[in-house]
């Protein structure tokens, strides 16, 4: 792993040189949202890409050897345990912060299957191999398809009392989103997970898997609470409050770990 990290440090400058779109998006994130100088933003952009490379290597290491390769601290595990021991299903709201994909390994669920929603972009070979590895840990992948069959699969999983995991920080061009104040700007967040939670009356947990050192990860687990839950509101207003509560949780984490933000495209309006 140390050799892999060393080689990654050498590769990253070339990746940044040829991947202009990704580099500009992250540079703008540090320059505009954080107000850093040009030089500091450039250094932070390199650091961001380097940590992202480490996280990819860590992901393969976990899939190959299991979570024992890293020291893991779970903050808020009592919330996950409470819901996995209940009869109802629930939703894990993820994001492109840290190493969310290994959450299924670091938060094992023997009593309930975890159904992870994944978006297109990977080859079928990668999806097949990853699916085979994750299913050994009771994690099943649900690809997002044009025929919308994934919606029925997600709904059925929650009805069976299982866990559904999905990223909640990208709307992929959908009009079904809520504008939120986020890190000194405005950005659109998708409503899908929170509309589903409101409709089926299930809870939502925010989960962030953060790399601390070469050998340690911290998993933050926290219920997403609807602000003003007891106040009168329409169905749409409840969903909007839900989304904004999650955006606030995301902002708290990003402010602690700004270099582990991995949305490599213009995120803010």
Report on this model:
With 269 residues, the chain is an alpha/beta fold. The chain folds into 2 domains: 1-65; 69-260. The protein is 46% helix and 20% strand. It contains 9 helices and 9 strands. Strands 1-9-8-2-5-3-4 form a 7-stranded mixed sheet, with helices on both faces. The N and C termini lie far apart (38 Å). The mean pLDDT is 87.
List the helices and strands and how they pair.
Elements: H1 2-18, H2 20-33, H3 38-65, E1 71-75, H4 77-84, E2 90-94, H5 103-106, E3 114-118, H6 124-135, E4 139-143, H7 149-159, E5 163-167, E6 177-181, E7 186-190, H8 192-200, E8 203-213, E9 216-223, H9 235-256
Parallel strand pairs: 1-9, 2-5, 2-8, 3-4, 3-5
Antiparallel strand pairs: 6-7, 8-9
Sequence of secondary-structure elements: HHHEHEHEHEHEEEHEEH
User: Which strands sit side by side, in order, in the main sheet?
Assistant: 1-9-8-2-5-3-4
Inertia-based shape = globular
Write down the overall mean pLDDT.
87
Count of helix runs? 9
Largest sheet: 7 strands, mixed
């Amino acid at each position: 792993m140390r050799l892999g990290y060393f080689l990654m440090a050498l590769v990253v400058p070339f990746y940044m040189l040829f991947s202009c779109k990704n580099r500009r998006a992250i540079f703008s994130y540090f320059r505009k949202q954080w107000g850093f100088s040009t030089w500091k933003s450039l250094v932070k952009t390199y650091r961001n890409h380097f940590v992202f490379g480490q996280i990819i290597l860590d992901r393969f290491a976990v899939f190959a050897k299991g979570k024992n390769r890293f020291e893991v601290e779970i903050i808020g595990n009592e919330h996950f345990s409470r819901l996995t021991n209940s009869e109802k299903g629930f939703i894990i709201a993820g994001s492109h912060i840290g190493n969310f994909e290994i959450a299924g390994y670091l938060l094992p669920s023997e009593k309930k299957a975890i159904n992870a929603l994944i978006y297109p972009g990977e080859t079928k070979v990668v999806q097949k191999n990853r699916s085979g590895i994750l299913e050994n840990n009771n994690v099943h992948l649900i690809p997002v398809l044009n025929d919308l069959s994934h919606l029925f699969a997600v709904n059925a999983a929650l009805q069976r009392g299982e866990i559904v995991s999905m990223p909640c920080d990208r709307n992929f061009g959908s009009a079904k989103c809520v504008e939120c104040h986020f890190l000194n700007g405005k950005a659109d967040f998708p409503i899908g997970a929170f509309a589903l939670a409101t409709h089926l009356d299930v809870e939502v947990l925010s989960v962030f898997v953060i790399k601390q050192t070469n050998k340690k990860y911290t998993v933050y687990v926290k219920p997403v609470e609807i602000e003003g839950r007891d106040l009168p509101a329409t169905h749409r207003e409840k969903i909007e409050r839900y989304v904004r509560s999650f955006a606030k949780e995301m902002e708290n984490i990003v402010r602690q770990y700004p270099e582990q933000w991995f949305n490599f495209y213009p995120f803010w309006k």
